[in-house]
Amino acid sequence: MEPQRRLVEPFYFSGNRVGCLLIHGFSGSPSEMRLLGERLTKWGWTVLGICLSGHGTTPEQMAETCWDDWAKDGENGVKELRKSCDTVVGVGLSMGGLLVLHLATLGLLDGIISMNAPMVLNDRRTRYIQLIRPFRKFVGKPKAHRLASVERFVYDRIPVDGLISLNSAIRQVRRGLYAIKCPALLMQSTKDLTVDPVSVQIIARKTQQANPAVLYWGNSGHILTLGPEREAVAQKVHEFLRQFTKEDLNCKN
Q1: Model confidence at 38: pLDDT above 70
Q2: DSSP character at residue 152
Q3: Strand, coil or helix: what is 227?
Q4: β-pairing verdict for 46-50 and 138-140
Q5: How far apart are CA 106 and CA 32, in angstroms?
Q6: Which pLDDT score, from 0 to 100, does residue 132 have?
Q7: Secondary structure element (H or E) that encloses residue 73, with its range
Q8: pTM of model > 0.90
Q9: pLDDT exceeds 80 at position 120
Q10: For 232-235, which contacts have Cβ atoms below 8 Å and span 24 or more sequence positions?
Q11: Burial 150-173 (b: 16+ CB within 10 A, else e)
Q12: Which domains does the chain have, with CATH numbers?
């Protein structure tokens, strides 16, 4: 069955001169970020929610893509927002959070909000995924991790090569975190079944130059943007963004 177009299409909402780049997670789609985007545009912010290459279609198409493609998607999103915005803040969920951190290490963002960004994955089997590569091209997700709903489109199986690429990216981004200097808000769900909550501690420790704020959410799972605390999450994002209307803060050296 083809996913509803609204769930998988990128979205753009025009607003003020502060642009929010919203990036969804690994094997997910813009549907994970749309509700947050709709909240932010009501408060006047400009919003761009991108669809990463190979996502929102089929697992087979995702298998043809990798971290380099997703990172380029993020860079292109920043460029698009720069056309109309003086300030661009990255807001990413899961691998989207990892991408936001990556873009900040390159000095491309004026501020960042990462949500459940992975440094350590809960499923230890993912560390050895390369061993099954000669035998399988896809692996299924545990049912508890899928959480597909009328609000969200996500794959129920993922390409092995994509997971290998993600593991490599986690190590790459982790090594570069020290370079982040822009304002940062790090969010972590304590009931996350996908990302080990220790991840946010690692990020905070390695981004000390940015003096990041850390927020824990005690009633939400991995998809923080669609969980029971979604409205409070949106409010915290809004509060973080308000600083950029008062002063010119950025990541650039």
Answers
A1: yes
A2: B
A3: coil
A4: unpaired
A5: 25
A6: 76
A7: helix 67-82
A8: yes
A9: yes
A10: 233/36, 233/115, 233/187, 234/35, 234/36, 234/39, 234/40
A11: eebbbbeebbbbbbbbbbebbeeb
A12: 5-241 (3.40.50.1820)
